[in-house]
Amino acid sequence: MGVKKVKTSSSRSKTLDPKKSIRRARVVKTKGPKWSIMIAGNKYAWSTKMDKIKIIRQGLPYESIEIISLKSNLPIKQILRLVGIPQTTYNKKKKEHDSLSSRDSEIIITLIELLDFGLEVFNNESEKFQRWLKKPNISIGGVSPESLFDSLTGILEVRNCLNRLEYGNLA
């Protein structure tokens, strides 16, 4: 790879050095994970979609449901209902240190991202964010954001709502 000369609109030559771009990309890449979660002494971290897919395929431990319960301020029973896991299965699999299915792991990881983003939008004011999750919201059909946590589409719709809120649109 060498240095290339590129003509700009003002007909001046400008040198393009790909090494600069590569250095910039390395700096961005070495910043560290964007999201992480500590479960049962193990750290799960991801910053790219490929990292996320790897964790999803591996499966998160059943203890991750407790983490979501704490972050969302929802009872474990409600999280289990949203994910579709019976309480007895949860108790047994947690005791056996088993992993969630790929589908359930994906929902948990997406919820982690959503809850972290929500706290960021609400300037880390947890109580305000928790109230917002529980209140019916006109921009998502008059239902509470937390009621949409049972599907990826619902979680992404809540994420879109938070995006609108962050930029001052109706949310």
UniProtKB/TrEMBL annotation:
<feature type="domain" description="Antitoxin Xre/MbcA/ParS-like toxin-binding">
    <location>
        <begin position="120"/>
        <end position="168"/>
    </location>
</feature>
<feature type="domain" description="Antitoxin Xre-like helix-turn-helix">
    <location>
        <begin position="53"/>
        <end position="111"/>
    </location>
</feature>
<dbReference type="InterPro" id="IPR024467">
    <property type="entry name" value="Xre/MbcA/ParS-like_toxin-bd"/>
</dbReference>
<dbReference type="InterPro" id="IPR046847">
    <property type="entry name" value="Xre-like_HTH"/>
</dbReference>
<protein>
    <submittedName>
        <fullName>Uncharacterized protein</fullName>
    </submittedName>
</protein>
<feature type="region of interest" description="Disordered">
    <location>
        <begin position="1"/>
        <end position="23"/>
    </location>
</feature>
<dbReference type="GO" id="GO:0003677">
    <property type="term" value="F:DNA binding"/>
</dbReference>
<dbReference type="InterPro" id="IPR011979">
    <property type="entry name" value="Antitox_Xre"/>
</dbReference>
<dbReference type="Pfam" id="PF20432">
    <property type="entry name" value="Xre-like-HTH"/>
</dbReference>
<dbReference type="Pfam" id="PF09722">
    <property type="entry name" value="Xre_MbcA_ParS_C"/>
</dbReference>
